[in-house]
Specification:
By secondary structure, the protein is mainly alpha-helical. The protein is 71% helix and 5% strand. It contains 25 helices and seven strands. The strands form three sheets. Strands 6-1-7 form a three-stranded antiparallel beta sheet. Strands 2-3 form a two-stranded antiparallel sheet. The chain has a two-stranded antiparallel sheet with strand order 4-5. GO terms for molecular function: myo-inositol:proton symporter activity.
């Protein structure tokens, strides 16, 4: 009704309304967003595949650094892919960059699927990484430049949704192939299918209208804008592009067009440098909250929490992945109602709380892990007992965690729950009672009692399993393992809507057009470099300082990230690219005493210039 204040609709609602009227917009966003699906699939699939690669290649099972290398070489490739992608985006366009990324990803998937040895898996991971790195920055950039400003955030969030959707899909496929011959080969090889699909779809789509205008292909740019914007808005958008491009061309004449000159020009330009402060901050913070330790090693973390079965670990990891996808949908609904900055700050506070809680849970699980019994350890024969345990001067004080950390050759064999007693006493210390609600006998496990520390080989593992015992390779039996998995799920719920998707949105809209490719490339490289550091050191850290110490370390990094986001990252909600540029010209200082309701009212901060 006229005269009554309009209800403030989210950009998500506006997105669906606009896409319904102009389906071409959604077609562009979905086709480019498949790059996010590739990104997500690769992130998730290796976590499950690694369990079975360890089974097939004993050198991988015994060498933590080799496991970390298989995981992190994709990240190393992504660093170079993101750097090359930034240059390719500006030189050859967003569309061609996505096509090249698809080709690289497809080749990498095939190489991994047929790999006869770990070194070939690593080569395939590098190819996949190159493709993922290019797609990780090009897809959201393409979507943002082909989207109306009023629904840009929601559409870029579709890329984040497809990333988490790809992760969820990878866990489903991992579970589907657990009993298939070749297990991990199928898991890794299937990744080539979405790359091929996107390659075909992108062949029929146009280049980014903003890039075309920048290359003086004005008529082509107009033709695309006419498919995206209502007729009455096309001319206004063309004028905005003209003004922005003319200013950037004048600046280019003084800076140069090479990649080195662009990098120097970016850091010497006040506006771009302030944008990079924000863009790099959110990308580095996204990784140092430890998210990809959960994504790359989720089944392994579940095993550290006390769930020994590969299939159980994958199934529980599927839950966390599903929550991640759900969080991306929440982000699409909220990112343009509450703003980028507020979502990230809330997300970071929640992440810190969860990491501290995980620290406590893993610490308690470690100090209360079952002890080692010399009787149980010798039960399978002297040659089966772990040599490190036999020669240890303090063997009487060993527990399950001590056994697993002592050597890569030691494993823990839990005592069978079907057995009631041993020389060391009862297997389970329990309280039995009659449950009136269930009308049946129930019991509470108070303590797991001693198990065996054995040599890590297939023969000993087989003998352990033959007695219906559980074979532990990473973590130990724990009464609070379920709580650890629940906290991982909560961590994902708090991460995904904020730090999961918003950093990519911020980086797709905070740089001037002239520097959007190189700025996004620099930020993406910082993201992947941080990712590499985290993924290459996670297993080593868990061995050196324990799972509890590792999560405590990530909590500390997250706190530093929260402080950096508060002081360096402005709000870009709902602002056209030109308004973002004007805002950065002034600099940014957070308001401590009052809420920031409008990003246009930012104060000047000389210290950031």
């Amino acid at each position: 009704m006229e005269g009554v204040g309009r209800v403030d609709k989210t950009e998500f609602t506006e997105c669906w309304r606009t896409s319904w009227k102009t389906p071409y917009i959604m077609r562009l966003a979905f086709s480019a967003g498949l790059g996010g699906l590739l990104f997500g699939y690769d992130t998730g699939v290796i976590s499950g595949a690694l369990l079975y690669i360890r089974d097939d290649f004993k050198s991988v099972d015994r060498k933590t650094w080799l496991q970390e290398t298989i995981v992190s070489m994709a990240v190393a490739g992504a660093i170079f892919g993101a750097a090359i992608g930034g240059w390719m985006n500006d030189k050859f366009g967003r569309k061609k960059s996505i096509l090249v990324a698809d080709f690289l990803f497809f080749i990498g998937a095939i190489v991994m699927a047929v790999a006869p040895a770990p070194w070939m898996i690593i080569i395939g991971r590098i190819f996949v990484g190159l493709g993922v790195g290019m797609a990780s920055m090009t897809s959201p950039l393409y979507i943002s430049e082909a989207s109306p400003a009023r629904i840009r955030g929601a559409l870029v969030s579709t890329n984040g949704l497809l990333i988490t959707g790809g992760q969820f899909l990878s866990y489903l496929i991992n579970l589907a192939f657990t009993r298939a011959p070749g297990t991990w080969r199928w898991m890794l090889g299937v990744a080539g299918i979405p790359a091929l699909v996107q390659f075909i779809l992108m062949l029929s789509l146009p280049e980014s209208p903003r890039w075309l205008y920048r290359k003086n292909k004005v008529d082509e740019a107009r033709a695309i804008l006419e498919k995206i914007y209502p007729a009455e808005e096309v001319e206004e958008e063309m004028k905005a592009l003209q003004s922005s491009v003319e200013a950037e061309k004048a600046e280019e004449d003084s800076i140069g067009d090479g990649i080195i000159s662009k990098v120097k020009g970016a850091w010497s330009n006040d506006v771009v440098r302030r944008g990079l402060y924000a863009g790099i901050t959110v990308q580095v913070a996204q990784q140092f909250v430890g998210i990809n330790t959960v994504m790359y090693y989720s089944p392994t973390i579940v095993q550290l929490a006390g769930f020994a079965s590969n299939k159980t670990a994958l199934a529980l990891s599927l839950v966390t992945s599903g929550l991640n996808a759900l969080g991306s949908i929440v982000s699409m609904v909220t990112v343009d109602r509450y703003g980028r900055r507020k979502l990230m700050i809330i997300s970071m506070i929640g992440i810190i709380v969860c990491l501290l809680a995980l620290t406590v849970v893993f610490h308690e699980s470690s100090i209360h892990s079952p002890s080692i019994s010399r009787f149980e350890s010798s039960h399978f024969g002297g040659n089966s007992t772990c040599s490190s345990y036999l020669t240890a001067s303090d063997a009487s004080s060993w527990n399950c965690m001590t056994c697993l950390k002592a050597s890569s050759e030691c494993r823990y064999c839990a005592t069978s729950p079907n057995k009631s007693t041993s020389n060391d006493g009862p297997i389970w210390l329990v309280i039995r009672y009659y449950d009136l609600a269930k009308h049946s006998d129930s019991s509470i496990v108070l303590q797991y009692l001693p198990g065996a520390c054995l040599e890590a080989n297939d023969a000993t593992k087989g003998v352990c399993g033959a007695e219906h015992r559980v074979w532990y390779t990473k973590g130990c039996p724990s009464k609070i393992g379920g709580l650890a998995v629940a906290l991982l799920g909560l961590y994902i719920i708090l991460y995904s809507p904020g730090m999961g998707t918003v950093p990519w949105i911020v980086n797709s809209e905070i740089y001037p057009l002239r520097y959007r490719g190189i700025g996004g490339g620099i930020a993406a490289v910082s993201n992947w470099t941080s990712n590499l550091l985290v993924s290459e050191t996670f297993l080593t850290l868990t061995e050196a300082i324990g799972s509890a110490g590792t999560f405590m370390l990530f909590a500390g990094f997250s706190f530093l990230g929260l402080i950096a986001i508060y002081f360096l990252v402005p709000e870009t909600k709902g602002l056209p690219f030109e308004e973002v540029e004007k805002m950065l010209e002034k600099g940014y200082r957070p308001s401590i005493c009052s809420k920031e309701k409008d990003a246009k009212k930012m104060d000047v901060n000389p210290s950031l210039s």
